[in-house]
Design brief:
Layout lengths: L5 H26 L36 E3 L6 E8 L5 E8 L2 E2 L12 E8 L2 E6 L3 E4 L5 E10 L5 E4 L2 E2 L1 E8 L2
Parallel strand pairs: 1-9, 4-5
Antiparallel strand pairs: 2-3, 3-7, 5-6, 5-8, 8-11, 9-10
């Protein structure tokens, strides 16, 4: 039986402690609603309180970084389709025109006709979407509002004139 030198054991313990410390911090942050995008989604001071800058159909829960970006002469269009998944949940299809998903440029400079989408369920931002399909699971019994906006790389909502490019539908979950 060989015993590792003291310095190797110490380094191993330090690395192990760093790993578990980082994991604990991540779990603590996630449990308190803090996300990796830089702010606490449960803190109302990080959200707008009205939709005055987002057009009449924009959600009142829109983030300040969801200002509108003019879609130009051929702004993007969005329609949603929701179908039950054979194994449970729902499959959400984002049908777009004049728009391309370009996830590798998220956070960069806005460009006409390309970006990502933001998914909201019952007024709460759930996720960024980087493709036309997304599986929704875990919806509780009852009616739920599904809303999706098309966003430029800098997270501003695309606009067609003064209207945000977004679509909404209602799903009624029976079970």
């Amino acid at each position: 039986m060989s015993i590792a030198p003291r310095s190797s054991r110490t380094l191993g313990l330090v690395l192990l402690a760093a790993f578990f410390g980082a994991l604990s911090g991540f779990l603590l942050a996630a449990g308190n609603g803090i996300t990796l995008d830089g702010h606490d989604h449960d803190d109302p001071s990080h959200h707008q309180t009205d939709s005055s800058n987002h057009g009449n159909n924009a959600p009142a829960h829109a983030h300040a970084h969801d200002e509108m970006f003019d879609g130009g002469n051929h702004p993007p269009r969005l329609q949603l389709a929701l179908t039950p998944d054979a194994l449970g949940g729902w499959n959400l299809n984002l049908m777009t025109e004049n728009f391309q998903f370009v996830p590798e440029r998220v956070g960069g400079e806005a460009a006409l006709g390309e970006g990502h989408a933001h998914l909201y369920i019952d007024g709460v931002k759930i996720a960024r979407l980087y493709s036309a399909w997304h599986h929704l699971g875990g919806l509780s019994k009852g009616q739920h509002e599904i809303m999706v906006s098309l966003n430029a790389h800098d997270h501003r909502v695309f606009a067609a004139g003064v209207q945000p490019v977004q679509a909404m539908l209602i799903v009624d979950v029976a079970e």
